[in-house]
Design brief:
The structure holds two protein chains of two kinds. Chain A has nine helices and five strands, in the order βαββαβαβαααααα. Chain A is an alpha+beta fold. Chain A folds into two domains: 2-105, Reverse transcriptase/Diguanylate cyclase domain (Alpha-Beta Plaits), CATH 3.30.70; 112-184, Arc Repressor Mutant, subunit A (Orthogonal Bundle), CATH 1.10.10. Chain A is elongated and about 60 Å long. Chain B contains ten helices and 20 strands. Chain B has helices at 43-51, 93-103, 108-121, 137-149, 167-188, 199-205, 223-228, 233-238, 268-276, 297-301, and strands spanning 4-12, 18-27, 32-36, 58-63, 66-67, 78-81, 155-159, 191-196, 208-213, 216-221, 245-251, 256-259, 262-265, 283-288, 293-294, 307-317, 321-328, 331-338, 347-352, 358-360. In chain B, helix 5 (167-188) links the parallel strand 7 (155-159) and strand 8 (191-196). In chain B, helix 2 runs parallel beside helix 4 (137-149). Classes of the chains: A alpha+beta, B alpha+beta. The A-B interface holds A 10, 18, 22, 25-26, 50, 52-53, 55-56, 58-64, 89, 92 and B 14-15, 48, 51-53, 72-74, 78, 80, 82, 84-91, 96, 99-100, 103, 132, 144, 147.
Chain lengths: 186, 369
């Protein structure tokens, strides 16, 4: 079940028909919520939603659109994403997914609430957090990190996999690593 | 008709950052204007203000004498082509081009006529019933243009439309865009504003070029004038590949440009100007384009007082031309010559065509003329 947030700078009412017309031609959906500048829709579409649909809409409407497309199993709630969107200035058309919105969010002041939301159960797992921090500080070099941690390399890899299963953030991906380190470095 | 006037336009963002300063420009009917400059210079912001996607902080913008500042983008009679093409992935080429007309309530027969007319201009007719994913980059670009052309707008705004294409395709599309502009300017009286960071695109495509830097207009002129008569070091160095050589030195009271142990005789006409402006025996920059530095012995004979012995640091073979990099008084310079056999480390004589050189004030960086 994916949810999509669509935001406009002007009242969305003048664009709504076109937005819904185009989206409905691509996948089935229902409107969850509508405010002056925002539309939140939900779909049980299981394929990849092409962000070009929204870039095309922005160029059709000659309006900037800010869009967030959740994962098929959403990692973060609508309320949380709406809060993040309020923090991030809306300058021009952009289509966010989980990684890109987090990347933007960590540029702004952080708090424990954010860490809990993103790190989930790992937030209180000090051993796993320390493992991940050491791995990142070892330039993502598993051999070096495992030596620093006095762990077998396979054990380290298992822990990194565990971190991914719990948070859906991959320590081995550069962008995810940046996000993770920004959250856990202090 | 599509005469545009941007009068003292400024853009200041809510966080206080000013992106565009005192932008003044008049665009004539059917003109192809290029805004060029490095990333962050304000060219896309200016384009977005023309489109209505960015609010104009101060100043006035007119199309055919009508003030546009408070008009919504859709009411401005502009058509915009974005860098990312932005085609609907689930619609055919026909549907992509025709969708905007359908929104306007046009009848299907009329839509068909218009779409086919535009497809014909853009040579997209064989692809009308394909979807974007089965098109090449150049074809997708043409569909994006088609979506804009059907609007029959007064002004076309193109924001780096070629930057997603590979180098060879970019060259091909440049020519096609120029031909296309001529066709639609004739058919629909459209003016075009084209934004690019690529100075070759600017030089080959524009009727006039607006060179921007840090939010300010540096110079507005035809490609020829921009290239031959740059107003400052930035314009001189930005336009042209390889870029203009800048050598720091001094003009002595005998009319020679001196730098390190070397000297070059400055033509009389230029010396008179430099004397008048008080630049004798003061630091100054000499600017000379790579193609105005010669190695051909016959040509060198004609410049006896501006010849230097150099050692080649690097040779760049480009095909019919070769770039030779060398050092002059700890300053790197490059000569662009017809290809001949030259080895790295070789010493040779080069001659500067001082009639083509420019001089710049080292503090203001303005051309001295």
């Amino acid at each position: 079940m994916v949810f999509i947030i669509i935001e406009t700078k002007d009242p969305i009412q003048s664009y709504k028909n076109v937005i819904l017309d185009i989206i409905s031609k691509s996948f089935s959906m229902i409107i969850l919520e509508e405010t002056t500048n925002m539309l939140i829709i939900q779909s049980d579409y299981t394929g990849v939603i092409d962000k070009d649909i929204f870039l095309g809409l922005a160029s059709e409407l000659y309006a900037d659109l800010r869009v967030y497309i959740s994962a098929n199993e959403p990692l973060y709630s609508i309320e949380v994403v709406e809060k993040w969107l309020k923090m991030i200035p809306f300058t021009k058309t952009v289509v966010y997914d989980d990684q890109s919105i987090l990347l933007k969010r960590v540029d702004y002041p952080m708090n424990n609430e954010l860490k809990k939301i993103v790190l989930k159960t790992v937030y209180e797992d000090n051993e796993l957090l320390y493992t991940v921090k050491t791995y990142l500080e070892a330039n993502q070099n598993t051999s070096q990190a495992s030596r620093m941690l006095y762990l077998h390399r396979n054990t380290l890899i298992q822990r990194l996999d565990k971190f991914y299963r719990r948070t859906r953030l991959d320590c081995r991906s550069f962008v995810d690593a940046y996000i993770i380190y920004t959250l856990i470095k202090n | 008709m599509a005469k545009l006037k941007l009068d003292k336009i400024n853009k200041i963002y809510p966080n206080g950052v000013q992106a565009v300063f005192d932008f003044n420009l008049e665009i004539n009917d059917k003109e192809f204007i290029v805004l060029v400059g490095p990333s962050g210079c304000g060219k896309s912001t200016t384009l977005r203000m023309v489109a209505g996607l960015e609010e104009i902080t101060s100043g006035d913008f007119y199309i055919d004498g009508l003030r546009m500042n408070d008009k919504a983008p859709r009411a401005r009679d502009v058509a915009m082509v974005f860098q990312s093409y932005a085609l609907y992935p689930h619609m055919t080429v026909y549907e992509n081009i025709g969708y905007g007309l359908k929104l306007r309530g046009m009848e299907p027969e009329e839509i068909e006529e218009k779409v086919k007319e535009v497809a014909d201009i853009l040579e997209l007719t064989p692809y009308l019933y394909r979807k974007p994913k089965s098109l090449s980059g150049g074809q997708r670009q043409r569909v994006a243009l088609g979506r804009a052309i059907v609007r029959e707008a007064k002004v076309f705004l193109l924001d780096e439309p070629l930057s997603n294409l590979d180098a060879k395709l970019r060259v091909q599309m440049r020519t096609e865009l120029i031909k296309l502009h001529e066709k639609i300017a004739e058919a629909f009286n459209t003016s075009t504003i084209y934004v690019t960071h690529d100075q070759i695109e600017a030089m080959t495509m524009g009727d006039r070029i607006v060179v921007m830097r840090d939010g300010y207009i540096q110079q507005v002129a035809s490609p020829k004038e921009i290239y031959n008569e740059p107003v400052n070091m930035f314009v001189a160095g930005f336009m042209g590949t390889p870029p203009m050589n800048f050598i720091k030195g001094k003009i002595d009271n005998k009319g020679w440009f001196c730098f390190g142990p070397s000297k070059l005789q400055v033509p009389l006409g230029k010396i008179e100007v430099l004397k008048q402006k008080g630049y004798i025996d003061k630091p100054i920059y000499l600017g000379i384009r790579p193609e105005d530095i010669h190695v051909d012995p016959v040509v060198c004979e004609t410049y006896p007082n501006s010849r230097l012995e150099i050692k080649v640091d690097l040779v760049e073979l480009l095909g019919s031309e070769t770039n030779l990099y060398f050092t002059l008084d700890n300053q790197t310079a490059v000569a662009s010559i017809p290809t001949q056999k030259v080895e790295r480390g070789e010493t040779m004589t080069v001659a500067f065509d001082m009639n083509q050189c420019h001089f710049f004030d080292p503090e203001t960086e303005l051309t001295i003329k």
